[in-house]
Design a protein that fits this description.
The complex is a heterodimer of chains A (546) and B (323). Chain A is mostly helical and 546 residues long. Chain A is built from 22 helices and four strands. Chain A folds into four domains: 8-167; 171-255 and 362-372, no CATH class; 259-353, no CATH class; 427-546, no CATH class. Chain A has a two-stranded antiparallel sheet with strand order 1-2. Chain A has a two-stranded antiparallel sheet with strand order 3-4. Classes of the chains: A mainly alpha (546), B alpha/beta (323).
Chain lengths: 546, 323
């Protein structure tokens, strides 16, 4: 008969683990716990399989980016949850004893646990008998946990079905792949922007800790915001638009005025008489300082003052001045003086000088220039990627139109038919697509203007190209094309008349107006968001490059 | 008695069984259950046709266990005093004195033969004796000798001139055993033992009154795991039509087993475990004892009688559910 020294463990109110019966129960308990974890993991695997199934099914309905990453993350999450759930299902000694009894020990183990601490002849005999039985029977070895293998098969079946669903080709999956690629690119660009913002912050902290640091913080904040937007975006066009918006903010709000702003002011002297023609011309060239010098000694007539007042009212809606800034204050002064007939050249000159002087220190201007350069190059990169990334060249469809589910039949060079106005691509709008008309800037032969106000942009460009200051001699039938895939610019000659149906205003007049107002002219009009960057780019180039 | 003696219980039990089997052939399970009841301190109601050896069995047990034995033949004109005893007047030199004359119940082993032939009034004379182990006559209560064991028999065939035992009295019996006709082989052996042999087999005394009392004490200490008790309680509850989900119980049972029945099951399970050489009662023991301890405590309705559904069938279903 096995002799066992029974040692009481006061903390756990159990016999010491030296007791073979307790040790045996502990072993069963560990096995049960292990099985509980395995069972939970199988349950998790089943849930994970359903998750993949739902993802796979949904990927045919909506574009799901980072599918593999989502699957991996799901696996990790479900595995973690499964292990935690299993770990929490740690069986007690009583449960383990019952499981041991179920192997054929006839309730000996559970009775044994309950008899700990009790004494008597029968109990003594019972303990010895249990020790003997456990020694012969070894319940820990005989214990077999009930793991539900059926669930595992179920899981495998669902995974196989999911794999089958994923193998079915789907436009949404292709779209998701493209979006993922775009996102990767945008993320990389966003990282660069963040680095730039960090550098600006660091530099401003090191160099200038006075009040001038505040605009730098705003600058870096703008860049951070842009980076965040770009990280979330999955469209190059949207990113370009966001970059343009930041560029605009940098130009107008943070630094008071610039050459573009000065150009926008040229209209202030419209109809003010010959005395102000020189000033107006200088403003149109962006030389606000020169214009201020010229105007300083002029004394505008009453009629001229009235005209200036009218012009101020006209341009005030178009130009954006820093709120509460000197420029705004001065403009109000000019208006008041003009109303009273007391407007003089000095007041006008001091107003115009606001557009020559940088608002802050040299370092900030330097940052702004740097940022501007970076943003411009970023925009160009994004535009280039938008062209090639969405495969709008050659004989491939433009993916944005494809993603919208629009009719892609008859499309060429990303120019859809007129049925879907929201999918208007760069350049002209074609009534119908034609293989022979490759140039993006060119218009289709049968193209009809569907909107008299906008007219045919391609044709406007054609005419406008001949009016560019540095364009040289441009034949009226030569249409300036745009970048094609591979970086070449393809130009096209047209033998069609320039006259455009639905064009109410002479393009020359419009062009003059554009020259006078600068990019503000473009801002007056509303464009679909996806075409906006392209329009901005077009007018920037028309304006001599941004 | 020490732990080494406790370990010898199985040998003792088997020895008693073998001695009784010398005289009573083909009723091994009945012998085992009667011995379990004796050690558990309960009484047994035995139902069977005449001539199956009921009386011989009790007599043999009394001889083997060396316990005082009384036989009471129940008849319709039997009076309670005929069982319990009564005060008689003794005329002596000092005058007339009242002296209590003990009845046949003042014995350790009582054979109440054909108990259902007596009137309910007489039957009820057994109630106090079986439950309290005392007898009250007049103003005096007399303690019955320990151990006290009643083996009552009843004939299921003859219904004329019988009084069915009331539920309260049935509940006093720890076990109800159904004695059936032995197998052909066993009947040959019965003939061999009783007819062909001129002398009765020699029956040895294997224990005494003190041994029985000691065994009763030890049996009460046999551990029963809480899980086994839980199952036993469920077993009892499942016999009640308003506490069970079993359709067979709802359909055929009028009233289920009492807690006294549950006590009987566990007491029997403890002794059975010892008899099997174990020192803890398992659910297997409980299940085995459930039939003997609960079959007379489950009161079936008329539908059950009409469709010949007995309590054992109900218990089969319940045990299948609980296992």
């Amino acid at each position: 008969m096995t002799q066992v020294k029974l040692i009481r463990n006061p903390r756990r109110n159990l016999l010491s683990v030296k007791d073979p019966v307790i040790r045996s129960i502990e072993k069963i308990r560990f096995k049960m716990w292990f099985c509980a974890i395995a069972d939970s993991l199988i349950c998790s695997a089943l849930l994970w399989a359903w998750y993949i199934f739902i993802l796979a099914a949904a990927s045919h309905l909506v574009a799901i980016t980072y599918f593999l990453q989502k699957v991996k993350a799901g696996a990790a999450a479900f595995a973690f949850a499964g292990i935690c759930a299993g770990a929490l299902r740690r069986p007690g000694m009583k449960a383990a004893a019952l499981a041991g009894d179920a192997t054929g020990l006839q309730d000996r183990l559970s009775a044994y646990l309950e008899c700990i601490g009790k004494s008597g002849h029968v109990l003594e005999a019972f303990r010895e008998e249990v020790l003997e039985a456990v020694g012969k029977f070894n319940p820990a070895r005989k214990y077999r946990a009930a793991i539900c293998w059926k669930r595992l098969w179920h899981c495998l079946l669902i995974l196989m079905i999911s794999a089958g669903i994923l193998l079915i080709p789907s436009p949404r999956m292709e779209q998701a792949a493209q979006m993922q690629s775009v996102r990767e690119d945008l993320k990389a660009e966003a990282e660069n922007l963040k680095e730039l913002a960090e550098r600006i912050e660091k530099t401003s902290d090191d160099e200038n800790r006075d009040s001038a640091a505040q605009p730098d913080q705003k600058l870096s904040r703008l860049l951070y915001d842009l980076a965040e937007k770009m990280e979330k975006s999955s469209s190059f066009e949207q990113a370009v638009y966001d970059v343009s918006q930041v560029q605009k903010k940098l130009g107008l709000h943070e630094y008071g005025g610039d050459a573009n702003g000065a150009k926008g002011l040229a209209g202030i002297f419209d109809g003010a008489g010959n005395d102000f023609d020189e000033g107006k011309q200088l403003l149109e060239q962006g030389d606000a300082e020169g214009a201020a010098r010229v105007v300083e000694n002029k004394a505008p007539s009453r009629q001229a003052q009235q005209k200036v007042l009218e012009n101020i009212d006209k341009i005030q809606g178009r130009i954006k001045l820093q709120e509460g800034g000197d420029a705004e204050r001065l403009l109000e002064k000019i208006k008041t003086a003009a109303e009273k007939g007391e407007l003089d050249g000095k007041l006008l000159a001091s107003f115009l000088k606001q557009f020559t002087r940088p608002a802050s220190g040299a370092s900030q201007k330097s940052y702004a220039e740097k940022v501007e350069t970076k943003l411009q190059s970023l925009k160009e990169r994004l535009l280039a990627k938008a062209g090639s990334g969405f495969e709008g060249y050659g004989e491939q469809n433009k993916s944005s139109a494809f993603a919208e589910g629009g009719n892609t039949e008859g499309m060429k060079n990303g120019e859809p038919g007129t049925q879907d106005v929201s999918s208007v691509a760069s350049g002209g709008e074609g009534m119908m697509a034609s293989d022979s008309r490759e140039a993006v800037g060119g218009s289709a032969v049968s193209g009809e203007a569907v909107d008299g106000r906008q007219g045919q942009m391609g044709k406007v460009q054609k005419e406008a190209a001949s009016l560019l200051p540095d364009a040289g001699e441009v034949y009226s039938e030569e249409v300036k094309g745009q970048w094609q895939s591979g970086g070449t610019i393809q130009e096209k000659k047209s033998d069609r008349t320039i006259e455009i149906k639905g064009e109410f205003t002479n393009t020359k007049t419009l062009y003059r107006q554009f020259l006078a107002e600068g990019m503000e002219y473009v801002d007056k009009y509303e464009f679909p968001a996806e075409e906006r960057p392209l329009v901005l780019e077009y007018f920037s180039k028309l304006n001599g490059g941004l | 008695m020490e732990s080494s003696d406790v370990r010898n219980f199985r040998n003792f039990f088997e020895g008693v069984e073998k001695e009784v089997q010398k005289q009573v052939v083909g009723q091994d399970e009945i012998i085992k259950n009667i011995l379990i009841a004796i050690i558990a301190g309960g009484s047994v109601l035995m139902e069977g046709a005449p001539g199956l050896g009921k009386t011989v069995m009790v007599k043999t047990f009394a001889r083997v266990l060396d316990l005082p034995f009384s036989r009471i033949q129940f008849t319709p004109d039997l009076m309670p005093v005929d069982i319990t005893g009564t005060y008689i007047v003794n005329k002596s030199e000092s005058g007339l004195t009242f002296e209590f004359q003990e009845g046949p119940i003042f014995s350790s082993m009582i054979l109440a033969d054909e108990i259902n032939r007596a009137t309910p009034k007489t039957q009820s004379a057994m109630l106090e004796a079986m439950q309290e182990k005392t007898v009250t006559v007049g103003r005096n209560t007399f303690r019955l000798p320990e151990p006290f064991f009643v083996l009552a028999t009843q004939n299921p065939l003859e219904m004329e001139g019988t009084y069915r035992l009331p539920e309260a009295q049935l509940d006093r019996f720890m076990f109800k055993l159904k004695i059936s006709l032995p197998s052909e082989k066993d009947i040959y052996r019965i003939l061999d033992v009783t007819v062909d042999r001129s002398e009765e087999p020699e029956i040895r005394k294997l224990a005494c009154r003190e041994d029985i009392l000691a065994w009763q004490n030890h049996a009460a200490q046999v551990p029963v795991a809480a899980s086994v008790k839980e199952k036993a309680v469920r077993l009892m509850m499942e016999t009640h039509p308003d506490r069970t989900s079993l359709s067979i119980v709802k359909e055929y049972v009028n009233c289920g087993a009492s807690p006294r029945g549950l006590q009987a099951v566990l007491r029997g399970a403890r002794v059975r475990a010892l008899a099997e050489g174990r020192f803890n009662a398992s659910f297997e023991d409980v299940a085995k004892m459930a039939y003997a301890a609960l079959r007379h405590r489950i009161f079936l309705n008329f539908k059950a009688s009409a469709e010949k559904v007995d309590a054992d069938v109900i218990l089969d279903e319940i045990l299948r559910r609980i296992k």
